Amino acid sequence: MQILFESNHSNLPKVSIIILDWSVRESFHVLDYLNRQRIDRNMYEIIWIEYYDRRAIEIETLIKRHKDLGLPPPIDKWIIMDSPRQECYHKHRMYNLGILNSSGYIVTIMDSDAIVKTTFVETIIREFERDDNLVLHMEQIRNFDKKFYPFNYPVIEDVIDYGCVNAVNGRPNDFDKAAKRLKDDWNIMHVYNYGACFCAKRDDLIRIGGADEHIDYMGHICGPYEMTFRLINAGVQDKLHPNHFLYHVWHPNQGGDNNYCGPNNGKGMSTTAMEIPGTGRILPLVENEEIKKLRLALNGK
C-alpha cells in the first residue's frame, strides 16, 4: 500500500468520503462535483482508494490544476493498494482501508461515478445533527441514454428526463409510497440502490468490526449495505433519505458485466449478507485485524 497524496486539513472534518476504483474508472467527474459543495471544504475530506497499481493521470492533473489555481486539493488522501493484477478486487477490503484512514465523525461510502448536488455533504451533516443513531442511504436516479457518454456534465434536469429508468419527474418510482426504513419493509433493499451512498458514524463502524472481508463478498456483489444490516442488529436506525438523491448516467460495464460475483440471489444482492437480519449477528465473519484493534480499544478491552 502507498499513500500517493495527502493534504493537510486545518481542522478535523465532519465527513470522510470514501471513493473506490479497481482500475476501471474512465471519468473522474465525481471529484468535480464533490469540490463544488456549498459547505466549507474543511468540513469534509475525500479519500480515493485504488485496489491495484493504477496511478490515474486524471487525478494527478486535477491535483496540479487545483494547486495552480490556489484551490484546496481535490482529494485529501490518494491510496494505492498495489494488489496483484491477477487478484479479484474486494470492495470490503477497500472500505476498511478507507475507515482506517478516515478522520471524520461520519464516514460516507459512495459510487465513484455518481453525480451529486451542491448540498450533498451539507445534507449528510444535517441528518446526523438531527439524530446521530443513524445509518443513512440515498437512492440513485439512473439514466440509460448513451448520449451522456463519454461523460459530458449533463444538468440534472436532463438526467431525470428522457432515458431515465427508475424515476418520474425526478422522484424514484413509487418512492413516496415506500417505507424509508428497512426494518419497516425489508423488501425495499431489492427496489432501491442500497450500494450507491452509505453514511454512518465512524465509531459505529468500528464497533461492528468494519466491513466483512469474507471471500463471499469478493468482486461485484455486495457493498456497504452488509454493514447496514449489522448496524441495525446493533440498534442503529436506518433511513433512506426522502428527498435527496444521487444521479448516474450510462457508461460501459455499469452493471458489472463479466465481473466475478459471489453468492447472490440473481437480483444483485448477496445471499450471505441477506442472512444477517435473521441472525442478529453484529460482528463480521472475517474481521480486519486493524479494525479489530480499534474496536477492542473503543470497548476498553
Q: What would a concise description of this structure say?
A:
By secondary structure, the chain is an alpha/beta fold. It has one domain (2-298): Spore Coat Polysaccharide Biosynthesis Protein SpsA, Chain A.
Question: What's the layout of helices and strands?
Answer:
Elements: E1 2-6, E2 15-21, H1 29-34, E3 44-50, H2 57-68, E4 77-80, H3 91-100, E5 106-110, H4 120-130, E6 134-137, E7 140-143, H5 156-159, E8 167-168, E9 171-172, E10 197-201, H6 202-207, H7 225-233, E11 237-240, E12 246-249, H8 271-274, H9 276-279, H10 289-298
Describe the overall structure:
25% of the residues lie in helices and 18% in strands. With 301 residues, the protein is an alpha/beta fold. It has a single domain, classed as Spore Coat Polysaccharide Biosynthesis Protein SpsA, Chain A, CATH 3.90.550.10. An eight-stranded mixed sheet has the order 1-4-3-2-5-10-6-11, with helices on both faces. It is globular, with a radius of gyration of 18 Å. It starts with a strand and ends with a helix.
Number-wise, the strands total 12
Bin the strand percentage: 15-25%
Unreliable spans are none
Please name the fourth-level CATH homologous superfamily: Spore Coat Polysaccharide Biosynthesis Protein SpsA, Chain A
CATH class: Alpha Beta
Q: Helical proportion?
A: 25-40%
CATH-assigned fold name: Spore Coat Polysaccharide Biosynthesis Protein SpsA, Chain A
Number of domains: 1
Largest sheet: 8 strands, mixed
Taken in chain order, the helices and strands follow as EEHEHEHEHEEHEEEHHEEHHH
What's the overall average pLDDT, rounded? Answer: 96
Instruction: Compute the number of helices.
Output: 10
Give the second-level CATH assignment, the architecture.
Alpha-Beta Complex
- Structural shape: globular
Strand arrangement across the biggest beta sheet: 1-4-3-2-5-10-6-11
